[in-house]
Amino acid sequence: MQDLLYFSQQLINGLTIGSAYALIAIGYTMVYGIIGMINFAHGEIYMIGAYTALIAITGLTALGLAWLPLILIVALLCAIIVSSSMGWAVERVAYRPVRGRHRLIPLISAIGMSIFLQNYVHLAQGSRNIGFPALIEGGFNFGSDGHFEMSLSYMQITIFITTLVCMTALSLFISRSRTGRACRAVSQDLGMASLLGIDTNRIISATFIIGAALAAVAGLLLGMYYGSVDPLFGFIAGLKAFTAAVLGGIGSIPGAMLGGLILGVSESLTSGYLSGEYKDVVSFGLLILILLFKPTGLLGKPEVEKI
Amino acid sequence: MAANNYRHALFCAIITLIISVPILGLNLEAEGVNITLTGATTSTYIAIALAAVSVFVFQAFRDSLMGTLGTLPKLNPLAKKEPMEQSKRVKLEFWVMTGLVVLALFWPFFVSRGSVDLATLVLIYIMLALGLNVVVGLAGLLDLGYVAFYAVGAYTFALLSQYTGISFWMALPLGALLAGLFGLLLGFPVLRLRGDYLAIVTLGFGEIIRILLNNWTSVTGGPNGIGGIPDPTLFGMEFGRRVKEEGNTSFHETFGIAYSGEHKVIFLYLIALVLAVITALIIRRFMRMPVGRAWEALREDEIAARSLGLSRTAVKLSAFTIGAFFAGFAGTVFASKQGFISPESFVFLESAIILAIVVLGGMGSQLGVILAAIAVTILPELAREFSEYRMLIFGAAMVLMMVWRPQGMLPMRRIHIKLHKQE
Lengths: 307, 423
Hints:
heterodimer; A: mainly alpha; two-stranded antiparallel sheet; 11 helices; globular; B: mainly alpha; two-stranded antiparallel ribbon; about 5% strand
């Protein structure tokens, strides 16, 4: 009984982290699906989202606002606005001028951007990690058998619900709206889409903005969940999210969701049963194995190289 | 058109404000559990406003600005000149290189100990950058976990000296060979991957090595690292004040000169110099050998190269292994220079710095990479007050370089033969 409880606890923790990874992974997968580049600076966009949310929360609390849902919604909106602007600006400055060049050139540019943004925040906000106030406290406890008690915190429930809402909104947007249809068209064939009168530059910008907005949501959620932020916060999370995107099949949005959940659960099981220090080894090992044996991922389409 | 321009310019200026005001203008201060928000100094706000205004002006008058820039005469007089004759250029390069090496040989005897120490570090970076240049610049394989091989070299020496008491000269080839072996083992499965996937896999590999070093406490000492790594000896002569090992003599006693701590520093510098020159020469030979040509051919057009009968795996693997080998070389020297190593020295940032050196210098160009390594290591030391901006500037420089001059500062020139028309 205790084993089962422990296992379910790890499962819950893993799904929580995994759904946040999925939110970040969407940004990687959408950008890759459309222009075929790895947006290495995406983790930094997420980190900036977390910082902005923390700044907004601190500011609002200092102004004397006490109603929690309002604080959270305003902080979320601030994070989304700043991160999306950052995503847009990064694409304009670092990626658009090098689009269509040799594959490594946009990647190196993206790495440069990632280093730049990390140090931008580092210089502005200091390198120390700053505690994120736990605004949503408490939770359900159940299944106690005297030794181990399983818990499901309100924070975890918030993460699940927010992720679910974002994913549903995104799916509806992609499948129903005019811009969403254009996004799908551009990801299938960029040249043809532009011939048919789609403003591809606008669609690419929109992709970066959507990805950044979702990353900002994840930034707020994970910042609160982990309880602290620092300028390097985005680097590992970005790598994990990229792993999730590759795991699910890069370019596929449902794949990113699935990949995020699988990665979150496997990571949480590793830290629960082996050791917390090796959880990163497991996720990177997983990434290497997938790329070696199934580079298209679980739900991805094989890429045919034409000569 | 004009109204449209202004609207776009206004939009860009507003975006500039949005991305800079919250992050730069409002600072989080943690005092215990409490976090307070303080405004930045007035000068920061003025700088932000100036940035927004200049973005507005640039975007609004972009067309006319670019137009005037285009009509300006080229400032660079060299651009008009015919490129130098091939044979002349090779000769000139040879003399420049020889001159630099001779200068570097005698230079340490006239300067302070600190500068020699820094110069040793520069030489280690030169070795690393030359090695990565083979992988990234020549073979076109983006390796983001290069620092892992550097770590393998350094830890090989540190661990062997701790457990078996091996000397520097034994460890040097061993560390390099082991790093090369790691490169071979990693490269074998991953080199089938396409360029950007390869980059991520090598990054993951680098992180795995670092995490293992950090957590395998019983062997590697974990975050505490390994200390007491011996200095190199000169034909059994030690550079310490007292001889540590049986059978060795000490340098200052043999030559009957007074003991000075500088001898060791200069000796290490000279070793690093010799090794860096050897690295440069070996790689230079490789570049002209068929395998070097094959690297470049495969980088330029993989399908064409394969259809001409090149084995993709063998060619890429050779580049990867050779790159790893020299990283191991550099790692051994680093371990000996520091006397103490810990996983702290082998973080991703280190890989990024080496990559930045290769990119800034010009992928494939040896002279460019060497000059970039010198600049990147020494400039932050010269301008201490700017040293915290170092990584910020690196990042920005990498982006700007890719946008404007992806071939680097001193781009690689391919050796070619001009065919003259027969009269």
